[in-house]
User: Fold this.
Amino acid sequence: MEEDDLQPGDRVVESRIADRLRVSRTPVRAVLDELADEGYLRRVRNRGVELVRLPKRPAGATPSGADDDLLVRISHDRVKKVLGDDVNETEIMRHYGISRAEATRLLERLASYSVVERKLGYGWRFLEGINDSQARSESYRFRLVVEPQMLLQPGYELSPPWVEEMREKHASFTEQKWQQSESIRLFEMNAAFHEGLAVASGNRYFVDTVRRQNHLRRLLNYDWAYGYERVRTVCREHMEILDRLEDQDYDVASLLLYRHIEKTMELRGTLYVQTDD
Assistant:
């Protein structure tokens, strides 16, 4: 909840937590029930679980914003090949000047996002990602074929609570001062948006495909290099797509999604022609 910068009144989505931690919903539900009993959460009819207040952070714990800054640096270093395929806590400690506990926490957080995995024995390994311009181009062209078609599936239906949550989260990005550490929260919101569009298709294979693409592009997008105006543009385009879907204008929504991905591909292609090693 801290990582997502949730505020009192924001929804806490059980399924998203389970996906992030790669566990079933049962243990997540048990923890949420315990937090509700302690007054940190409440269950609201027709809305789900809402945050009432965050538990106090233990003394000496690193603020979430500082963790986000470090994750952005790790993402940048990984994309620039400063960090190799295999890393360990000691390497992270020395490279970023942090404690072992902080290094372990950061690696565990990256593991929860399916960016790294613990190796047998000792250390961690970065999972497959999109690390060069050719892979980026192939990913975007694949998404251009798949994602717009999701919106044209028979019986396509958005979840009203999800739509409300997306509108609230996108609005928060257009109303606050931009900081580079926000790039992580921005990507996770963007990933949730595209995955939610897939879920509404009712087709598990679309969902699996979008999740896979989100995993592959996660580290690259944590190192945001496009400025705040692009953030505002992304939010506006997402909301235009939702508006069309709520009006059941699926053909236009599909075209808007195609153009949204295409413009992003063009932008990033130009940028990485200049910066790829």
